[in-house]
């Protein structure tokens, strides 16, 4: 089962980075291959259901996740529907000081049978680059330190 773990220290606050990851509505603006994204449900108490629609070589896939949000600390992600038999993970935000934060992304997943041969390689690359994409977005939104 593929697993991803990436750590990075950024010169932005934990609040800024948490809000960036929590802003699912704007993922399609900066995540390669993401055509649409948004929040389907938000109970106002930290539980959200979000979706992303990806397109790769004419194949379109929708992923729906349940996200448990612990403001400025952690977002736990679990599969609701999509081309996976299993998908779970979390983003963790550990403030170093008021202007820097360690971000850790941990995910494990398994594609459903039949899609592994088509999507496993591009999906592995995408998961490996996702932290870089969010880092670049943080620099565009919040500037360089």
Structure description:
By secondary structure, this protein is an alpha+beta fold. It has a single domain, classed as START domain (Alpha-D-Glucose-1,6-Bisphosphate, Chain A, domain 4), CATH 3.30.530.20. Helices cover 25% and strands 50% of the residues. Strands 1-7-6-5-4-3-2 form a seven-stranded antiparallel sheet, covered by helices on one side. Strand 3 (47-56) and strand 4 form a beta hairpin. Helix 1 crosses helix 2 (116-142). The longest helix is centred in the C-terminal third of the chain and has 27 residues, at 116-142. The protein is globular and about 45 Å long. The mean pLDDT is 91.
> Tell me, what's the shape?
globular
Share in helix: 10-25%
* Count of DSSP-assigned helices: 2
CATH architecture: 2-Layer Sandwich
By CATH, the topology is Alpha-D-Glucose-1,6-Bisphosphate, Chain A, domain 4
Low-confidence stretches: none
The class by helix and strand makeup works out as alpha+beta
Mean pLDDT across all residues, rounded?
Answer: 91
Domain unit count: 1
Structure summary, number of beta strands = 7
In sequence order, what are the helices and strands, one letter per element? EHEEEEEEH
Largest sheet: 7 strands, antiparallel
- Radius of gyration equals 15 Å
| End-to-end separation | 37 Å
Tell me the strand percentage band. Answer: over 45%
CATH class: Alpha Beta
Biggest β-sheet: strands ordered side by side in the sheet: 1-7-6-5-4-3-2
């Amino acid at each position: 089962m593929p697993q991803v773990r990436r750590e990075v220290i950024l010169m932005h606050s934990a609040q800024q980075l948490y809000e960036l990851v929590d802003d699912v509505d704007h993922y399609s603006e900066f995540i390669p291959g993401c055509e649409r994204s948004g929040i389907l449900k938000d109970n106002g108490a930290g539980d959200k259901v979000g979706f992303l629609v990806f397109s790769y070589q004419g194949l379109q896939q929708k992923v729906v996740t349940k996200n448990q949000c612990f403001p400025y600390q952690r977002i736990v992600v679990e599969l609701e529907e999509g081309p996976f038999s299993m998908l779970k993970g979390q983003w963790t935000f550990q403030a170093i000081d008021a202007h820097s934060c360690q971000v850790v992304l941990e995910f494990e997943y398994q594609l459903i049978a039949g899609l592994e041969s088509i999507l496993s390689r591009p999906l592995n690359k995408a998961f490996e680059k996702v932290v870089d994409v969010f880092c670049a977005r943080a620099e565009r939104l919040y500037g360089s330190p």
